[in-house]
Amino acid sequence: MQVFKFGGASVKNAHGVRNVAGIIQQQNSSQLLVVISAMGETTNALEQLTWAYLRRQADTDTFWQRIRANHEQVIQELADGDTSAFSQVYDLFAEVESLLQREPDPYTRPDQVYDQLVSYGELLSTRIVNAYLNQMGLDSYWVDARRLIRTDDSFREGKVDWKQTCEYITDSLAELLNSSVVITQGFIGSTREGYTTTLGRDGSDYTAAIFAYCLEASNVTIWKDVPGVLNADPKWFDETVKIDQLTYQDAIELAYYGATVIHPKTIKPLQNKHIPLYVRSFLQPQDYGTVIGNFEQRLPISSFIFKMNQTLISFHPKDFSFIAEENLSKIFGQFAEYGVKINLMQNTAISFSVAVDNRPDRLARLLAGLQEEFRISYNEGLELITIRHYDDRTIERVLVNKKLLVEQKSRYTVQLVVKDLGTHGL
Ligand SMILES: Nc1ncnc2c1ncn2[C@@H]1O[C@H](COP(=O)(O)OP(=O)(O)O)[C@@H](O)[C@H]1O
Ligand SMILES: N[C@@H](CC(=O)OP(=O)(O)O)C(=O)O
């Protein structure tokens, strides 16, 4: 059996849904499970809606009406005058509206409310695609991923209970896949008590890997708006090269350092079961794309990953002690507690520095707990550049017009924290 995953960009409008339906219709494997994300920018819009609802803002309903109108427009364009096939989408609208009419429960954590509301992006998109496939005469079956993906109660970052999840998935789907294409949601799951959870932003690729792992799929295809994995993000680099084959190891490293084309958690479960991962273009579905698997050859060319809006924080123990296990464990403890991911770290005898994504609220709370023991210096507005399989020429190329603050090299990877000098620096 195969797993397909379509992200938000592929289903952002009615044209996209028709295109996705065409790709599903054309695949000739008898067993297919399709994981779909929320349409276009819906997840961002639902995030805004959630914060507005929790703060009881007067414009809460305006946010919701915009989301509803976007989906209704897609339905109108797909339905050909008769929207009855899409009635379950309207049921979901009613569910959200009844939730928004209630006062926020002061005893429910904001992150839990977030998951409850934000998950509607995937529920809506999958209902729409499924209804459209049925309207086309294709025998597809909509499955609620919350019934199958069991997580703990780390809302917004649910940790998967693999054993229970695989049991649910195989029990519910093994037979069904013989008769229907199964359509389900990326990104969402639920706790043992039945509360909806999400798996972390951009987590739908990961969902595809979870289903593939549990069902021992023969392969997974994630359909993107790029021809495959390129040696850099085309949004930042003019001249990119498509990589035809990638080892799991190189793919993990690229995703880990921030190549957003694949969610970092996606690769490991597939590697464990030797399941190949194809990255292909939903715009040119006939093209081959990239395949990630067990290959001998490492990445054939240098790959570049840019992370913008980075903050470099340095800790200096106030008591003039060296940086050692004891003070490091305090620092790491704070980062773990506030869920701030360290993108790069480096220490000298008397200081410890990290580069992190700039999230001012979280960082302020995190640093407050360390200020008594450490003098903390802070440098914002930086970029973190990672080059996998670097050489001197590639480093020179990315440092044009940049001030280098930190350089860290390992055998295959170099990471550079830089400040853009703009034209003034020339
Ligand atoms: N190395 C890379 N190769 C290809 N695309 C990349 C790479 N790094 C970042 N990207 C970006 O990833 C985007 C596709 O991922 P994403 O937007 O998350 O897709 P979706 O939301 O549809 O799953 C591309 O549009 C591209 O800008
Ligand atoms: N819709 C979710 C999950 C996801 O993975 O989306 P996409 O596949 O469009 O990146 C998000 O935006 O975070």
Automatic annotation (TrEMBL):
Entries under SUPFAM superfamilies matching the protein: ACT-like, Carbamate kinase-like
Superkingdom to which the source organism belongs: Bacteria
Metabolic or biological pathway, per its Swiss-Prot or TrEMBL entry: Amino-acid biosynthesis; L-threonine biosynthesis; L-threonine from L-aspartate: step 1/5; Amino-acid biosynthesis; L-methionine biosynthesis via de novo pathway; L-homoserine from L-aspartate: step 1/3; Amino-acid biosynthesis; L-lysine biosynthesis via DAP pathway; (S)-tetrahydrodipicolinate from L-aspartate: step 1/4
Stretches assigned to coiled coil: none
Keywords, ordered alphabetically: Amino-acid biosynthesis, ATP-binding, Kinase, Nucleotide-binding, Transferase
EC annotation from Swiss-Prot or TrEMBL: 2.7.2.4
Recorded catalytic activity of this chain's protein: L-aspartate + ATP = 4-phospho-L-aspartate + ADP
Alphabetical list of Pfam families matching this protein: AA_kinase
MF annotations from Gene Ontology: aspartate kinase activity
Presence of keyword ATP-binding: yes
Enzyme class: transferase
Domain spans labelled Aspartate/glutamate/uridylate kinase: 2-281
Sequence similarity: Belongs to the aspartokinase family.
Protein known as: Aspartokinase
Species: Larkinella insperata
